[in-house]
Amino acid sequence: MRSGKTPVVLMGKLFLCLWALVACAQELHWDKSMAAAGKARQEGRYSEAERLFIDAIKEVEGFGPGDPRLPASLNSLAELYRTRSKYAEAEALYKRALAIREKTLGPDHPEVATSLNNLALLYHDERKNAEAEALYKRALAIREKTLGTDHLEVASSLNNLPVLYHEERKNAEAEPLDKRALVIWEKTLGADHPQVATSLHNLAVVYHDERNYAEAEPLYRRALAIWEKAGGMENPEAAATLNSLGELYRTQGKYAEAEPLYRRALAIWEKAGGPENPEAAATLGSLGELYRTQGKYAEAEPLYRRALAIWEKAGGPENPEAAAALTSLGELYRTQGKYAEAEPLFKRALAVKEKSLGPEHLDVAISLSNLALLYNYEGKYSEAEPLYKRVVAIREKNLGPEHPDVAQSLDAYAALLRQAGQKADAEKMEARARKIRAKRPREPGRDLH
Question: Taking the complete model, does pTM exceed 0.90, yes or no?
Answer without folding.
Answer: no
